[in-house]
Amino acid sequence: VFRKFQATERLDFQLRAEMFNMSNTPHFNAPNADVSSSSFMIVGSGTRNTGREGVDGRMFRIGLRIGF
Question: Looking at the whole model, is its pTM more than 0.70?
Answer without folding.
Answer: no
